[in-house]
Model the fold of this input.
Amino acid sequence: MNPRIVEVRKNIMKKNDLAAAALRDRFQLKRMFVASFVSSPGAGKTAFLERTLKIARSSRRVAALVGDLATEQDAERLRHSGAPVRQITTGTICHLDAEMIEHALQGWPPDEVDWLFIENVGNLVCPASYDLGEHLRVVLVSVTEGEDKPLKYPHMFRAASLIVINKIDLVPHLDFSLRQTIDNVRLVNRDAAVLEVSARTGEGLEAWRDWLCAEAAAAREFVPL
Ligand SMILES: Nc1nc2c(ncn2[C@@H]2O[C@H](COP(=O)(O)OP(=O)(O)OP(=O)(O)O)[C@@H](O)[C@H]2O)c(=O)[nH]1
Ligand SMILES: [Mg+2]
Done:
């Protein structure tokens, strides 16, 4: 690659890392637990978050940020939960970065928040490189995408604390192997937890809630739900 391009890219990443470090400090100070969600477009991030916000709101103060190139549609869907939600529209940019998060958090959310969820732009490539200061990153993959995604997008799957296989209600209708997908996840990430869920039917969401509570408790020394 052209050395000038390499230099510019290094500077962009350095700038993002500094902004992410400042966000991390701020989250610690405010005792705010932050999880981000990434996936290819349409894997079910918003559907999964709609469920998550409803579950978490019973005992936690929650809020969400959602990134898309255009529209407020996902924010509107998430607001039905009653939680404060802010949309970040990125225009032509295929990922969120730490400055966008910092900007969205200026004077917002209106009240103190225990858990903040960030839905990234639907994309399995660009978001992998951008630290958002979050405690953990969840990668969703849906059963309609095929078993090979962990192998084709290893950077994204490697950076995940949890891999959620969504839309398992559709498995009976597909030629899709859960076993093969999990084996492929293990080839790129030995440590991540793996959960099989359906944001449509709610299957697997108890295990998700338990995992989330344990992670938040570890990060914030909070008592579990
Ligand atoms: N059958 C089934 N459909 C689902 C499930 N989860 C999401 N969907 C559907 O999949 C489509 C995409 O879901 P979204 O939640 O919008 O996906 P997304 O990842 O947020 O999409 P982008 O924000 O555009 O990247 C919608 O029609 C959902 O209703 C699921 O578990 N099962
Ligand atoms: Mg969405």
